[in-house]
Design a protein that fits this description.
The protein is an alpha+beta fold and 470 residues long. It has nine helices and 21 strands. It has helices at 2-13, 51-54, 59-63, 88-106, 147-157, 181-198, 280-283, 360-374, 385-469, and strands spanning 24-32, 36-40, 46-50, 70-77, 83-87, 110-113, 116-118, 121-126, 129-134, 161-170, 175-179, 204-213, 216-220, 225-229, 250-259, 264-268, 289-298, 301-307, 310-315, 336-345, 350-354.
Length: 470
């Protein structure tokens, strides 16, 4: 009875059905040699895996072949009387076909890497198979592209991992077709949900710049895009994101805020860069002269950038020695001025600057140096008429100090001189008055005597005529 039972078990473990080329059989490895691998298939003949077939396996796959391990093989040749030629490589390839068929049936998405392309589309491996993505199923290829643009888009896809769906499997024609368009939207939603579930504020992520906008950039975090606002791109002020990044750049970003309801992720690039304010006290000190470019005009003054990421305030009271109601009267945006550091508050990220406390000599020396560096007689940096007037005003004010002393001395001398001249003038006037009075008396006498003599002569003539007539 025991012998019958053992015989039945033996028959169950050994399949004497004649194998056919193309069959997939399971067996036990009984030997691993340089010439190949011997596999017990439960038949009268063992399966032999030749060394040429082993060479098609990856090194780690060959290292995993051990005696007594179970393995699947593909029957290649049955003509040898004492053995069967089998293939581990083809068995694994057959398994890839099986899995591809299952993916097509379920509609599941997988991620594949583009390894090449041709005029019609892109090539993506699936296990040991080579699948194809027609151009019409690639998200990057939009309508209206010419041949050159299509080739450029396809070239950029090489090496990228993209989401795909299996849309056709044909073993006999060895045809395996994928679609990125069918998978893209579903993949993005799936990835976004998974990422949002595990993401936390304060996390640091690595991503790729996927788009530029006037207000910031989008960063692909692995199927999900996060937004870096333009104010979070750098510590210094920029007008457009293209000044610091371009599409395709890989960047490290800091997660600032997560809106799971709207599925939005706010990121920061500048938090991953050195903050210039951390070491500002090592580079600047009180009374130091610095160059600053006016970046903003505000009600209470103006802001000037003294280095990328470090802006100081020019208060209205520090623009001119005279009263200033509007900073725009003295400085303009885009102008560069020589300024003096008057205060530093590292913790509050504030620096106080002054144009008023820069002397005329310092201004002249600075402008001369800039002209010399530029090699032209014109100023190397833009200076407004208002700024020149402010410098002239300072020159006048500073020059006025010795001038006032000179004027006061001159005034005292002039006062003494005037007083002396007044006395002299009075004395002169007295003498002149006496002379005038004397001359007047003489003239008056002469004037009075001449008409009198003339009158007496006329009377005498008249009396003579009357006497003759009588």
């Amino acid at each position: 009875m025991m012998e019958d039972t053992n015989f039945e078990e033996f028959l169950e473990t050994h399949d004497y059905e004649l194998p056919q080329v193309g069959d997939i059989r399971k067996g036990i490895i009984v030997a691993v040699t340089q010439q190949g691998v011997i596999v017990d298939l439960g038949l009268k003949r063992d399966g032999i895996v030749p060394s040429t077939d082993l060479a098609k396996l990856e090194p780690e796959e060959r290292a995993e072949l051990h005696v007594n391990d179970e393995i699947s093989v593909y029957v290649m040749n049955t003509e040898a009387p004492d053995s069967l030629q089998v293939s581990i490589h083809l068995a694994k390839m057959n398994q890839d076909w099986v899995e591809a068929e299952q993916l097509m049936e379920t509609g599941d998405i997988f991620e594949g890497e583009v390894i090449g392309y041709n005029k019609g589309g892109a090539i993506v491996p699936y296990g040991r198979l080579r699948g194809f993505i027609p151009a019409s199923h690639l998200a990057a290829l939009t309508r209206g592209l010419n041949d050159r643009q299509r080739q450029q888009k396809l070239a950029k896809l090489r090496g990228q991992k993209i989401p795909l769906k299996v849309i056709e499997v044909d073993r006999h024609r060895r045809r395996l077709v994928f679609s990125q368009r069918d998978a893209q939207k579903e993949w993005e939603e799936l990835q976004k949900g998974e990422l949002l579930d595990r993401l936390q504020e304060g996390d640091v992520l690595h991503g790729r710049v996927s788009g530029l906008r006037d207000f910031g950039i989008f960063v692909d975090l692995g199927g999900v895009d996060g937004l870096v606002h333009i104010s979070e791109l750098a510590w210094h002020r920029i007008d457009h994101p293209r000044e610091v990044v371009k599409v395709g750049d890989e960047v490290d970003v800091y997660v600032m805020k997560i809106d799971r309801d709207d599925q939005r992720i706010s990121l920061s690039r500048k938090k991953m860069l050195p903050n210039p304010w951390d070491t500002v006290e090592q580079r600047y000190h009180i009374n130091q002269l610095v160059e600053g470019c006016i970046t903003r005009i505000v009600d209470y003054g103006a802001f000037a950038e003294i280095e990328p990421g470090v802006e100081g305030l020019l208060h209205l009271s520090q623009l001119s020695r005279g009263q200033v109601e509007n900073a725009g009267e003295v400085v303009k945006e885009g102008e560069t001025h020589l300024l003096r550091v008057v205060s530093i508050e590292k913790d509050r990220q504030r620096i106080g600057l002054s144009l008023r406390q820069v002397s005329a000599n310092e201004q002249i020396e600075w402008m001369s140096r800039k002209q010399a560096e530029a090699g032209t007689p014109a100023p190397a940096q833009k200076q407004s008429n208002r700024a020149d007037e402010a410098v002239e005003e300072e020159v006048e004010v500073e020059t006025a100090v010795p001038v006032v002393a000179e004027v006061e001395t001159a005034a005292e001398t002039t006062a003494d001189s005037i007083e002396s001249e007044v006395v002299t003038a009075v004395e002169i006037d007295t003498d002149v008055a006496a002379e005038v009075e004397t001359e007047a008396a003489v003239v008056e006498t002469e004037v009075d005597e001449e008409p009198l003599a003339e009158s007496e002569s006329v009377i005498e003539e008249t009396e003579a005529q009357e006497a003759e007539e009588n």
